[in-house]
Design brief:
Shape: elongated
Radius of gyration: 20 Å
Order of helices and strands: EHEHEHEEHEHEHEHHEHEHEH
Strand order of the largest sheet: 2-1-3-4-5
Strand content: 15-25%
Structural class: alpha/beta
Distance between the termini: 27 Å
Helix content: 25-40%
Length: about 325
């Protein structure tokens, strides 16, 4: 995977009014090229893959007729807001926003330039769109939601002795709170006790997880960007404590979780890229384009056999 560059310094003087009147949905330059601004909330494997898939889809469709201005907000909402303000000032033809808070920043910055989101679990519950079927205004995108019930079943198959499950997530990510509540309901429906914990940043994460290990038998970690970026920290606490971790997507399990049923974030970004092409070239109205969702047939089982060995977990034949 290509290493994505970090956000460059953006002077405060770039902050300008957030709407450019008259910006068309399918602009492009006189030579037929398009400029797409990409704001990615933070760097970790899942979001990186989604960005890569998005760019590949547009490059396959448009070749050298598309230019990308990629910026990484380094996990800071204020950076995301500054980045999209610059995109608006520059008059980009479309904004791709990767992760919920990045989409929020883009949504607040412009009601004219089309926005395609990705790596968002629930666009409606996050207050980004009116409905999945008809998002409204200038925003559409691809959802990374997958049914948490399959993760509950996976926990039961790999760690049947577990009774209490902890969920740790960022206190600043609304999307993660939505996922945590959905997971709690799903686990409790199967008889588990669930405890939720929040951390403000990576510095607090280790102490929160350490304290939680004394109260729970295992963890379920949704696709939270703070946690996904710091799975090494999670692993360094949970593995010595003998606590299995089921994750919401594969790259988290690869770094330090036990297992997951995961969508492919490259494919997710690719679908978002196809949506962007329809907007730029075919003049589609993003507000009338349904939010894209994978179905359960797209989920892939991943088990981290090294972690399973360290935890003394035998993988049942049904999962091999």
């Amino acid at each position: 995977m290509k290493r994505l560059k970090n956000i460059t310094a953006i002077a405060l003087s770039l902050i300008v009014p957030t709407v450019i009147a008259g910006c068309s949905q399918s602009g492009g330059k006189k030579d037929g090229t398009y400029t797409v601004g990409i704001v990615q909330l933070v760097e970790h494997n899942a979001l990186d893959s989604a960005t890569e898939g998005f760019q590949d889809a547009l490059k396959e469709k448009l070749g050298d007729k598309v230019e990308f201005d990629f910026q990484n907000a380094q996990g800071e909402q204020t950076n995301a807001a500054t980045i999209v303000t610059k995109f608006v000032n520059d008059g980009v033809d479309l904004i791709m926003a990767n992760a919920t808070n990045a989409v929020k920043a883009a949504r607040e910055a412009t009601s004219e330039i089309p926005i395609v989101g990705t790596s968002v679990t629930d666009y409606v519950e996050s207050g980004l769109v009116a409905s999945d079927e008809k998002p409204g205004e200038n925003l559409t995108g691809a959802s990374d939601n997958n049914p948490v019930e399959v993760q509950v079943e996976l926990m039961g198959e790999l760690a049947p002795e577990v009774k209490t499950v902890g969920i740790v997530y960022s206190s600043s990510e609304e999307n993660s709170k939505i996922q945590a509540d959905e997971a709690q309901a799903a686990f409790e429906a199967k008889g588990y006790t669930v405890k939720q914990y929040t951390a403000a940043d990576s510095n607090e994460l280790q102490s929160v997880v350490t304290a939680a290990t004394a109260e729970v038998d295992a963890f379920y970690e949704p696709t939270d960007n703070l946690v996904a970026s710091n799975m090494e920290i999670i692993k360094n606490v949970t593995v010595p404590a003998g606590k299995p971790v089921i994750t919401g997507e594969q790259s988290m399990a690869e770094v330090g979780g036990l297992a997951t049923y995961s969508i492919d974030y490259y494919d997710l970004g690719y679908e978002a890229g196809l949506m962007a092409h329809d907007i730029l070239v075919n003049g589609k109205n993003p507000g009338e384009m349904p939010i894209f969702h994978f179905d359960t047939s797209n989920l892939k089982l991943y088990i981290n056999e090294e972690i399973a060995g360290e935890l003394g977990i035998t993988i049942p034949d049904s999962l091999k």
